[in-house]
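User: Now give one protein:

AI:
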Amino acid sequence: MRVILAPMEGVADAPMRSLLTQVGGYDLVISEFIRIVDQLLPEKVFYRLCSELKNQCRTSAGTPVRLQLLGQHPQWMAENAVRAVELGSRGVDINFGCPAPMVNKSNGGAALLKQPDTIYQVVNAVRKAVDSSKPVSAKIRLGWDDKSRCVEIAQAIEAAGATELTVHARTKEEGYRPPAHWQYIKQIKDAIAIPVIANGEIWSREDYLNCQAISGCDDVMLGRGALTVPNLAHVVKAQQAPLAWQQVKQLLLQYSEFEIVSDKEKYYPARIKQWLKFIARHYPEGEQLFVELRVLKQTKDILSLLKQA
């Protein structure tokens, strides 16, 4: 089995990717998406959103990283995919699942699930442009507001030449509301020959086993669960129990050290609260800490509270 860290825009930035892969268990990381509109982006944009390019496109723990691109225009997606690979990306992943309204209203991300032909054209253009030795993968949801075309979408991606497909087992309209409909992943897996990776509502080893039984997929992508239980990759592989609270607290402090020395320091208060909100799903101590920390706005005050917790 493979466990892949999901591309969580605005959450799984380079410091978070570094931290979670140091904890270990991940076989691959997909970066936050780079938005492609109507130009070949300069190299600095790729380095800004995927700093691992400076380290042979691996995290500090050595886990390979694959850049994700989001866009609707085949030509520009192809040209930027070539640049990503030339800069060192471990292949290219294409985002057809982002549910963010700002992305969807400009016909990006999950909006393209209503247009399987456009999805085909984008994947095909990228596949033809990128060296055949490099993987071209895609990530989808089950549809925009219904699931009736999920197999058609997956078949279009396979026909376009993709090497593997990740399926988030919900529609765009379902957002992140449980349950995840893993049985539709099974339909997709049975209809195509390329590897399929299951994604959605995997928070524990038990969830993984249920997903595996229903979807037929051994490989999984972890998103919010990876933030809630930081060693979830090891947990689903039956290699470890969830970390103890004191270990999680040390990770919060380590993440704080990463963030406050970067150019994203102004976002640190919001980011640490965001992560704690996920952690609180599993750790009662995290829930209490989140309540206390929520009212704080200054970095120094947040760090002080974390050290005292």
